[in-house]
Each structure stands twice: as structure tokens, then as C-alpha cells.
Amino acid sequence: MRDLEVLYRQVIMEHYKNPRNKGLLNDSTYKTIHIKNPTCGDDITIQSKIEDGIVKDVRHDGTGCSICCSSASVMSETLIGKTKTDAKNITETYLNMLTNKEFDESVELEEAVVYRGVNKFPARIKCASIAWKAFEGTLEESE
Amino acid sequence: MRDLEVLYRQVIMEHYKNPRNKGLLNDSTYKTIHIKNPTCGDDITIQSKIEDGIVKDVRHDGTGCSICCSSASVMSETLIGKTKTDAKNITETYLNMLTNKEFDESVELEEAVVYRGVNKFPARIKCASIAWKAFEGTLEESE
Amino acid sequence: MDAYLLKKDFPVLDDKTLVYLDTAASSLKPKQVIKKLDEYYEKYSVNVHRGVYSLSYVATQLYEESRRKVSEFINADFDEIIFTRGASSALNLVATSYGLNNLTSEDEIIVSELEHHSQVLPWQNVSNITKAKLIYVPLNKEGRITVENFKKVLNKKTKVVALNYVSNVMGYVSPIKEIIRLSHEVGAVVSVDAAQAAPHMRIDVKDLDCDFLAFSGHKMLGPTGIGVMFGKKELLKDMPPIEFGGDMNDNVNLYDASWKDSPYKFETGTPPIAGAIGLGAAIDYLNNLGFENISTHEKKLKDYAVEKLLKIEDIIVYNKTSETGIITFNIAGVHPHDAVTFFDGDNICMRAGHHCAQLIIKWLEVVATLRVSFYLYNTIEDCDKFIESVKNARDFFKSVGF
Amino acid sequence: MDAYLLKKDFPVLDDKTLVYLDTAASSLKPKQVIKKLDEYYEKYSVNVHRGVYSLSYVATQLYEESRRKVSEFINADFDEIIFTRGASSALNLVATSYGLNNLTSEDEIIVSELEHHSQVLPWQNVSNITKAKLIYVPLNKEGRITVENFKKVLNKKTKVVALNYVSNVMGYVSPIKEIIRLSHEVGAVVSVDAAQAAPHMRIDVKDLDCDFLAFSGHKMLGPTGIGVMFGKKELLKDMPPIEFGGDMNDNVNLYDASWKDSPYKFETGTPPIAGAIGLGAAIDYLNNLGFENISTHEKKLKDYAVEKLLKIEDIIVYNKTSETGIITFNIAGVHPHDAVTFFDGDNICMRAGHHCAQLIIKWLEVVATLRVSFYLYNTIEDCDKFIESVKNARDFFKSVGF
Ligand SMILES: Cc1ncc(COP(=O)(O)O)c(C=O)c1O
Ligand SMILES: Cc1ncc(COP(=O)(O)O)c(C=O)c1O
Prior knowledge:
The complex is a heterotetramer, with two copies of chain A and two copies of chain C. Chain A is an alpha+beta fold. Chain A has one domain (2-141): Alpha-Beta Complex (Sufe protein. Chain: A), CATH 3.90.1010. Chain A contains four helices and three strands; from the N terminus they run αβββααα. In chain A, α2 crosses α4 (125-141). Chain C is an alpha/beta fold. Chain C folds into two domains: 3-21 and 290-393, Aspartate Aminotransferase, domain 1 (Alpha-Beta Complex); 32-287, 3-Layer(aba) Sandwich (Aspartate Aminotransferase, domain 2). Chain C contains 14 helices and 15 strands. Chain C has helices spanning 3-7, 31-43, 54-73, 87-102, 117-130, 147-153, 176-185, 205-208, 233-238, 273-289, 291-310, 336-345, 358-364, 380-399, and strands spanning 19-20, 81-84, 108-112, 133-137, 158-164, 189-193, 212-216, 227-231, 249-252, 257-259, 315-317, 326-331, 348-349, 351-353, 369-373. In chain C, strands 2-8-7-6-5-3-4 form a seven-stranded mixed β-sheet, sandwiched between helices. In chain C, strands 11-12-15-14 form a four-stranded antiparallel β-sheet, with helices on one face. Chain C has a two-stranded parallel sheet with strand order 1-13. In chain C, α2 (31-43) runs antiparallel to α10 (273-289), α3 packs across α10 (273-289) and α11 (291-310) packs parallel to α14 (380-399). Classes of the chains: A alpha+beta, C alpha/beta. Chains in contact: A-C, A-D, B-C, B-D, C-D. The interface between A and D is small, with 7 and 12 residues.
């Protein structure tokens, strides 16, 4: 259980219990994407607001396991304030890291780096990715 | 090819080439049953006329292989003139013989006995039985 | 019946550390079934019904021999057994062929929140199309279908009753025989989802007098890709096929065609030959053990585990009183997907989620549950490992702050 | 490619006297495929998509990896591949989901007398229900579908064109790419029956630009009970599922539900997991050999055999010019079912009948035919044995008076 302990003791529990930027806004300047994890029923909605090439805000809501919910919270903290290009880059790097693909280690993932431990639990990789995939979707919508 | 030769050289070819009692009648005193062999498309119709407990007539028509067509002809010759009870008995005995079940060897199958050789060709047993099965059907209808 | 000995028949259990508690999703397969599949592929892997040569004759005999075994297994007649891709396909066949062609907006269909999606959704579709009303039996406070509650919704408008024999979440055995008797009194037909019954108990369709019944091979030691739909002869006779093509037809003309009789009318194309033959071998295996032994064994393990579970703090069991080998539970405050990763770490396979039965999960007012299900190859040691792991999981999750 | 060596991969051919010439009905299976099936059943025979534990994750990966292999095999996208029970099921899915929902009495459906029942009957049913008109391409004097004749029936009313890529009776390759181009000009969609193409030639759905395409595993070295339906993403998106139940839905409420995206929308219940994994192994085997080698080999055997057949008196060959490994013929005056028993006596497996294609048999104005079909495991010696047996059969039947 060492791997699991390492994973949970870190950032994850903190964000699971005290999620940042949680709750959706009824604001048309936000792009909204809803994703479900067909395997296990995690269900998450992500909103993002891009202005002048900057990620002004990221919101999230939904139900799911600790990895899924915490990762949405961590993501929002990591990405708010970044340029759209950086946000895109971070997202790509994060998703590559999760799936054991090659990734640019020089990209600063901040707290999101703890999810690297998820690759020890392949069945949970989806849990850690859907929030970020939904964010990617909102970027595409804003193009 | 010995078995095949024995089978074909006998009665079968003779009845295949010169079928007896072939052709259907448009006569409501006859009972009619149509059967197909789903495996190979043999298609046979049998008519019988029972009067005073006697098989007065048996007619047949259809398309199929030599075993199928000849057996209809042989059957008609064998059964015409028999009592209904005997005809039933012969039919049952014949079908048991074909399928390698126990059968009453004392029942006189006349020429139909040559089809015993068919049990060397299990895939053809159906060909040799459908005319007789159809005849059984006409008996049931006449009850 | 000696489960320790039986374990040796299941190659997946060569991994002695593995505790497999997800039979309700799919059972493991014994060597005897795998061997039978190999035999088909290695000795006579040819098509059925079509060839007049010996190999094809052998394949056809074995395929049809399996149909006979299935028919005896549930006490049906030979031509009442239709092979399908699985229970889901079988239940859809009933709804599409019978339901869409016999129901109108005047009629009612009784289902329940205890159904698997594969039983309730096909009838939701029939209801959408025909405008027949979908009526839910109210469940009692344990989440059971009772005869008493069933009577409240049954009436002269009821045309179809589509319920489960054993629930895949709660493990309850439905009072299906009495439901069928009552349904017939008002002229309704009953379609029984027996996917969780067939692996565990003797089914007798003549005694039940059910009109349709469906189950899957893969949940009862058989291969994937094979299922069974039973239908009463008189009903099948008037039902149209829903798939058209090779082998199910009689005469084909340019603008019309005629069909073979049941069961072939409903089995177009090359069937899952190996699957059917493997299912026959699975039935042999089960018959050999006897259902009385199997269900007694499962019940014993389940009662043992429930008793221990109830003593662990923070464990919520949703189906304490169930009659079969299924336990549905949660660790308070811990999402089941978090929990299941812990169990996986202990090499215990169990299920977390809604188990393709969202309605009962909603009825329970939870987001998801954990589920274990015992079968003939499980032992008391499996139970002990499971209980130990539950305790450790609870402690672990509390310790990290859940 | 050395067919003598390949024979060793096929356990059925351990019987050295056996000449298997019925691949068009179903192919034999190589050890590599059987091993892959065993591996699933022996190592991780659990359900897919549902479990969060490791074994289930492995099973799911392998199942979906097969989907990827299939998609690359025909140059489709991953989510354009739907697993079905077989080609017949796949062709029915197209007709039921697309056909029943898009056609009206104003529309026309083009089919041909050269179709297998599994391609023509589903559209006959669509025509019966929607009153769309079923139109037959006139065949040319060889019995081929030609672009010229196709143009005669194509018009603005054509909404669906449902034709074969390779005929299972005549072995002709249809000019399907040009037919698709022309069909798209009038806005029709094209559904291609590739059951006899997939085992023998490289299929490229992007190059063909076909809208739907179907084939079976068991005819291309794979297991029984698995087939593939390809559909263009844009079309699949708007098509309703036709089977409802577990795994294909998203959110389920009492009176409504929503579906997953394609391909899962069309795959309810536990899929034929072993079948899909085995099909992946079959594709590996075929890719390893390369289709160029396979089809050159088949064509060589077929040309060799036809040349010899034509020299035998009383032999009628119906498809001399075909481009693939199928020969359809008769012995004059001898019913094919009589003939086939003779060949069986020589341990030669071949087919007699209407080959699930009664329309072309009627077109040929015969009651039935004999058919042999060559594949990668056949050799010149197989051809020689076959030819020798044909001669003996002819002599035998003449001698007994046919
Ligand atoms: C051309 C063609 N289409 C469709 C089919 C149906 O395939 P299956 O029987 O595997 O469903 C076949 C095989 O018999 C075929 O040859
Ligand atoms: C009660 C019940 N019904 C139906 C099904 C569907 O069976 P399958 O997935 O084999 O089609 C299942 C299995 O998941 C089940 O548990």
C-alpha cells in the first residue's frame, strides 16, 4: 500500500476535502464542457474563461472519487493566470506524464506533478485525466 | 467408395430415374404435407389418401438429391395398400433404422430396407427421412 | 463439493494470491470449458447447418447437442432455445420482437428499479415507441420486489411484466413464480431476466410457467459471446424475426421471403458455434456439482462475510438479508473507486460503481457501491482475506484523512 | 509465403488426408489464434469496461487493442469500429438503425441478385416497412455487377446502395469504389458486404470512401461469434442504438436515458471479449503474411484448378473469370448433394447448396451448385486431389446410371 499512501497523503486529500474554485457559473463568457468516465461513473464539468490570451478563471463541479475531484481543483489552481499557450502546454505535458508517454520534464506542473504516482494504478489514470481533458475541450471551444 | 456404390447401385437409382406415383393431385380427399431440408434445400411434398383404414394412395413431388427423391418413390410403393396401422408401423421402423436406433427387424420394409446403407453417411440421413416424415404428417392430419 | 479442489480447475486461480469476488460481472472459466473450445477450434472448426461433409456434420451435431443441454438445463423444449450474443441481446430480442409488435398506448409494462439496464432499457424503448406505459413496482423498504407491492400495480392493462429472478446488486431472489401466476390471470406475459439466477440455482421454466427467460454464458463458467433466450413455443411461433439473412430463411425471392421455424428463425448468420459448445460444457460442469451444493456453499460464504462485515465500524451493508452470494456495501465517507484500488492492491477483485443498475443505486441514495459476489471456487479463506482487507482499507482511508 | 509450412499452424490439418476447400463458409483457425483465446480464458477471463481492478483493466486493454487493430486493418478510425456477433448482425445493424430511420416511400434501395441473404434480406425488410423501393442492378451475362448496369438503376431517388465487395458464390470482385463515387454524387450512402473480401484482400475504407462495411471473424482465421461493422463517424453520430442495456448508456432515469458515443452506443451488454481478442490475433497473422501474397496464392490455385476442371467432360464451371479463390460448378446431371457425399468419401470438404444466396442460384437457373474455395493453407496437391476426385466422381455417377 506504499504507493497508494504516497499518492493520497500528498496534495490529493487536501484538495479533495477543500476543493478550490468549485461550483459553476451561469456566465456566457465561460466555455463549459461536461465529461463522464464511462468505466466508473465519475462525472465532471469544467468551465474556463479566456481573455486576452490569459486563463482568467477555471471552475469545476461534479461527483467522483478523490483522484478525479482533487485533480479538477489542482488543475484550476495550476492554470488560472497562465497564458493560454502555457495552459495548453501544461495540460499536454500532464496528460503525457499520466499515460507514461514521453513528456517535457522542464514544463512546470506545480502541484499537479503529484499525479505522476497515478501511473502505478493504470485503472485510475482516467480518473486523473478527465478534468484536464474537459479543460482542453473548453480551450477548443474558445477558438 | 464401396458403401456409396452399394447404396446407389441398388433400388435408389432405379427409382430416381423412374419415380413411381409422382405428381400431386388437386383432390381434397388427400392430405398434403410440404417439408424442406434446411441443410441442403431438398424440398418435398407428400400427399396421402386414407380410406377405411387403408392407405389408398401416396403421391409425391419436389426437388432434391437422388436419395431424397428416390425414397419418396420407394415409400409410395411400399405403403400403398397397407393398413394405416401397418403403414405407421413401417414408417416408424424405417425412421428408427435410419437413425441407428433400435428397431423391430421383423417389420417388413420391402425395398425401403436398402436405405439402411444411408446410416454410413450421417449427413444424408435427413435426405432419406423427409419424405417419410412428411407422410407421418399426413397421417396425423387425417386423424 | 470441495471448493479447494475446484479451484484447481480454474487457471486464473493458479495465482494463489488472487481473490476473485467479481463473479456477478463474469465468472472464471474451468479447464473443462476451455478444453472444449480448443477441441472445436482444433478438430472441426467449420461452419454448421450448411455443409453436407462429415466435419460440418460433427460441428452441427455438437452445436445442436448444446441446445439440447440448455433446454434440459432449464426444462424447456429443444426448439424453445435461441442462442444469442448474451443476456442483453436476448432481453432485447424479447422486447423488440414481442414488445414492439404487441403493445399499444392502451397497455402497461411492469418493470422495477431493481432491474439491470439490459432488462429495463429495452422496455423503456418499447414504451417510447408504442406509448405503452412503463410502470414501476414500488420496492419495499429493503429494496425488494414483493408480491404485495406487485399486486398494487398489476391490472387488466398490464400486457408485459419484465423483472429479474435474482438482482445483480442486492442478490435478492424475486417471488417470480407467484408474480407469473398473477400476471397470467390478467393475461400478461412475463419476461424473466435470469442472468444472475442461471449460474446459481436450478431453473425450471415449466414449473415457473414463464413466457420468456434470458441468461448469459460468461456468468456461469461459459465463454463470452453466447447467451440464451427461452420463449414459449406458442409465443415464438407468432413473433417476427428481428435479424434477417443467411440460415434463418426458407425460400428467398426478389421481393419476399419466408422463414424457418423457431429457433432458427431468430438465429441468422453463422452462430457463435464455439460459444454454444462451450456453454454446453459449462452446463455439464454445473450439473456435475449440483445446484444445491453450489447455492448452499455461496450462501454460507456470504453469511459468514456479512456477519464479519457488520462488526467493522464504518461499513454499510445494503443487502444483509439477501438469499444469494452477493454483498453490496460501502465504507462510510470513502468513494468506492478509491476503495477498490486499495482492494486491488491486496489482489482482491471486486466491483465498484453502479453495476449497470443506476436505478437501484439512485434508490439507495448513494453515488455508487462496492460489490463482492461469491461462487463455487471461493473459500472461507477468501472471505477472511477480504474481511482483513476491508479493515485495513477502512483504517488506511481514515488515516489519510477521508 | 509457403503454404506447406502454414499448414502446420492449423491443427485441423493434422489430418494429412484432409483437403479443406470450404473456407468461404468458414476458415480454419491457426494455433496462434487459439492460443490467444486460451490466454484470455486462462489468465484474465473477467469482464471489460466495468472493473477498476487490474485484471479487468488488462482485459479491457486487450479488448480495445483489438478494436485498434481492426481499425488499422481497414484504415478506419478507432471509434468507427463496432463489434457485433458476425457479418450478418453487422449488416442488420446498418439496415435497422440507418435504413429504418432514414428511408421513406419516396426512396430507392439498390441491391443485387449476387448478394448473400444477409445483405439483401435486411433491406427487403426495410423496404417492406418503409415502402422504399428495392431495385436490383441487372447482372451482366457473366453474373457480374458492372458500373454500366449500376448507372442504369442509380438515380436521384437512390438513398442506399447495399452491395457485396466479393461474391460468396461467383467470387467476383465488384467495382465498388466507382459505385461508391457515383452513389455519393446522387447523395446515396453505400453499405458494403465485405465478408468475403476481408479474408483475402486489403480493404481501405478511406480510399473506398464507403459509408458502412461489414465482415466476420470466423471467415478470416478468427473465432466464431465476432463480426465488425464499420460506419463513418458522422453517420454513426446520428444513428440510434438498436439494442439497449448495460454499458451503452450514460445516464439512466426511470423514463429516459442517454447514450454513450459510438462505438459503445451500439455495443450493449458484455461483449464477445474472447472473440474480439481472437480476431486481433487473426489480423496479426494475416498482416504478417501480407495480402498480396495471400491473394496471389489463392488466385494461382484457383486458375490451376479451373484449367483442369474445364478439361473434364460433364463439368460446368459457372464463374471461370472470377478474380478470387472461389469456384462454383456442377457435374452435369448429378445433384450437388449426391456429389458432395462422394467428395466427403475422399476427405475433401466442399460445399453444396445455395450458399445462402438463392437469388444468384435462381439467376443461374440451377437447383444448387458445388463450391470450392481456396485459402492460404491450400496447396497444388490439394488441387490435384480435388481434380482427381472430380474425375472419379463423374465416372462413378455415370457408372451407376446418373
Ligand atoms: C458475402 C457474405 N456476406 C455475409 C455473410 C454472413 O456472414 P456470417 O454468417 O458470418 O454472419 C457471408 C457468409 O456466409 C458471406 O459470404
Ligand atoms: C441481472 C442481469 N441482467 C442482465 C445482464 C446482462 O448480461 P450480459 O452483459 O451478459 O449481456 C447482467 C450482467 O451484467 C445482469 O447481472
